[in-house]
Amino acid sequence: MKDTLLDQSKKALEWDRLLEAAASHAKSTLGADRCRRMALSKDLAQAREWLEATSQMAALREIPEPLPSLSFPDVHETLLRAEKGGALEGVELRDCSVVLTLAIEIGKLLARHVARAPLLYDLAEPLRLWSEAEGLKRKIDEAVDADGSIKDSATPDLRRLTRHAHDLKQTMRDRLETILHSKRYTELLQEHFFAEREGRYVVPIKAEMRGRVPGIVHDVSASGATVFLEPRELVDLNNAIKVADLEVEREVRRILRELSAELAKEIEPFRRALDVLAELDCIEAKAAFSHQIGAHPVRLNDQGHVDLKRARHPLLVLTKERVVANDIRCESSVKVLVISGPNTGGKTVTLKIMGLFALMVRAGLHLPCEPESEMALFQEVFADIGDAQDLSKDLSSFSAHMTKMIQLLGEAVEPSRTAPADGSSVTSLVLLDEPVTSTDPSEGAALAQALLIRFAELGIKVVATTHYNELKALAHTRPGFANASVEFDVPTLSPTYRLFLGMPGGSSAIEIAGRLGMDPTLLQAARRILETEDQAVEVMLADLQETQVRLSRELEQSRAARQEAEKLQAEAKALLARLESTEREERRSIKKKLMDELLRARVEIQATLDSLKQERTAAKAKEAKQRLAELEQATRRELESSGEPIPTERLQVGDRVELLTLGTVGTLLEAPAGKKRVRVRVGEGEVSVAVAQLVGRVISPSEKSDRPISGRRQVSPVAPDREVEEVLDLRGQTADEALDHLIARLDQAMAAGGPRLRIIHGHGTGRLKAVLREYLKGSPYVATFRPGHQSEGGDGVTIVELK
């Protein structure tokens, strides 16, 4: 049967070799066979679904729970025999049990990971719906051992018959031992052992002595020196053993027929399960192959847009340690991409990458390129690569190529005629390696131009390699055409395999010939023969490519420099973060030291107050309170010294200021210069504050909002001379922060002579409330404390009565 154009194209692209590489990852013969016959979708939605299924299988391969090995036997022939009423052998039933076990395990695993692999879960639906699978497996496993033999415990009758046969054989062995050690047989035996022949027990007798032992000869040794004889005294027992074995065998056959009949009832769901397992094995092979070649899923479109980032030929990845990656971009508006450059530069490799990628996405295979890439879905892929000479039909290379082009034009028209009504551009992809060669260059170039223009008019995407300058010029001047070139390092005579988009490349044939050692005079003659215009074009292309190479290298250097700068910036940020952390630790250490000093002072003052209460001297009490207030103020100044004050006369409207009397931060609404009081916005309200009570500071990011400064007295934004209730709101703070603020507020309350303090801590987990109340039990300032009444905030509030 003659190959179609698609078959020929697959051969040119080595598609079968790629499928074989994927099939090598399959665990079953059915899965491997499915890989080798991998279907190609022409539907965009289906192709996306197949790619997603491969991605989901790749995700399942990464989960901690091991994925059951999809290694299972092909039991299609077994099922067919059972369907026809045949009795299966134990080994065949065992293989069916293996399939059943795997089907049950896979169904359960995919049900557990439905969120991770919903497509695979849907695919495995026949496995979950097969309600009889576990019952059938249990029946087989109860009767058939792992080696395929029937268990003695399969049925009560088989157990009884097997035990009876065993007892008879044990009796036979005892009699044989007696015979072997009796004096009567001492001279008759060739060896002291017994054997089995034709299912009957015999003893080895010397050939010349066989007349002295009545019995039946069942075998003779190769030398003829020994006959294997069944003594007459053992005939009846051997007969009994034979009958017992036949009864066992009859029961085994009955069990096998019964199990085969049970299996025959489940033929269709069993076949569906086999099909699902084979498909899952194929998908897992795709995922494993994807991992092997470093591939990723890509976006798909039906607009003919190709944007491949760092694309690599999948078959080269399998065979070479280092493969040059290239960016291949072909906008949907570009119908024809013309790739030029020297021989061995990688033009054909680029063609094959495009062709293989176009087939791979239709089969649900990931592509060896960056995940940000995008590939078009082409309904048909045609490739004319390599020598098409057909000696059997007496066709030259040119004639064979032309015959293929005529056939291709006829077949490639059809997809454009069946384009969807929504206007999306579903196209074919045509790959042409040096179109229209092996003929007169002028005529060949003209014919090649006409051919590419016709393909473009038909809405077909074409990628073609060429040495024709006419095609390079066509790609430069005609809308819908674009140039690309491959780089060749002439000084080293080595291709770099790098692809440059947007510019043509020169052939460099004369330069390469010179590097290979051709006579310089001959090269000079070639340059003279080369037409001036063509020579100028070659020089121009060489200069352009040199410029492109230089710019590319500079771009790489810029990228490297940017990456280095980003790395240094990250290191600087990390260093700054460490320094800030160290600074915060030092500040916390200083704060703790000052708070310890304040606590000692508080104990001293409380002792003084206690003695004053006994003496009841008002002047002394006032003096003690004044001392405490001064100490507290001095300590607070030390704690807040990290913020650098701004002179009042430099403050402007909009500056952030600290209000000492209110213990909060606000925004100036008027400049304080020459005024005794100014208006300040605090939160949503506005207060009038004496200029003397303002401190301008550089506010840290944590103090940007108009909220009370931690540990300060919290009051409503009203005039400072108005009586306010002592309230301490500690919600949202850690236990350590809240405890610091409570201690500071108790100092303030005692210094101000306040009788009561209302602490708001909320409910939360209860830890903050417990820590605060535990401290209040031992505070020298506290007379009593209690939870708030319902009207006061309930148990989310603690009311403190001060001494």
Please, could you describe this protein's structure?
It is a single chain. The chain is an alpha/beta fold and 803 residues long. It is built from 23 helices and 24 strands. Strands 10-11-12-8-13-14 form a six-stranded mixed β-sheet, sandwiched between helices. A six-stranded antiparallel β-sheet has the order 15-20-16-17-18-19, with no helix packed on it. Helix 5 (76-83) packs antiparallel against helix 12, helix 18 (509-515) packs antiparallel against helix 19 and helix 21 packs antiparallel against helix 22 (735-752).
> Average pLDDT across residues?
81
Terminus-to-terminus distance: 109 Å
What is the 3D shape? flat
Helix content: 40-55%
Contiguous low-pLDDT stretches (5 residues minimum) are 388-395, 414-424, 700-724
Report the count of strand segments: 24
Sequence of strands across the biggest β-sheet: 10-11-12-8-13-14
* Sheet with the most strands, sense and barrel status: 6 strands, mixed
Query: Helix tally?
Result: 23
| Portion in beta strands | 15-25%
* Rg from Cα: 47 Å
Could you say which structural class the secondary elements and strand pairing correspond to? alpha/beta
